[in-house]
Amino acid sequence: MWESDPIVYSNLVEIMRKEANEGSSKKPTSCSRAALWLTRAMDFTLALLQRLVKDMSQNMEQAVEESYNLTIKPWHGWISCAAFKVALKLVPNNNTFINVLAGKDESHQMVQDDIRSLISLLIPLLSQLHSILELYEVHKLKST
């Protein structure tokens, strides 16, 4: 779509507006649906980071599952839920995860501070995205 008119379709809202006007926003291959699932993935990430920053020693598998249940599971069908259960077994333990985020010379406190900063950026961004998704009535779509 962008390639057809880069000026008109220079941002996501314009693309979603065009899809809504054409009646294609709810189709499986629409940009609107892609934006919806990207937003849900970021909702999941935000929920997970909020859990971790609250308690850096929390069990990762439990934190991931609780975040998934809150944010994405309501929109998944049974096949996707089953796939998630399998993927959950691949979640690293808490120390491994934090150490990967920390890099070489960063303390756990620095990681926690970085996570807090990211959370403060994600909250208003996600609020705007949810408003846009509701405006174009794609916010309640389930997986196909």
From TrEMBL:
Please indicate which superkingdom the organism of origin belongs to: Eukaryota
The secretion signal range is none
Q: Name one GO cellular component term.
A: cytosol
Q: Which residues form the Glycolipid transfer protein domain?
A: 2-102
Q: Name one GO molecular function term.
A: ceramide 1-phosphate transfer activity
This one is known as Glycolipid transfer protein 3-like isoform X2
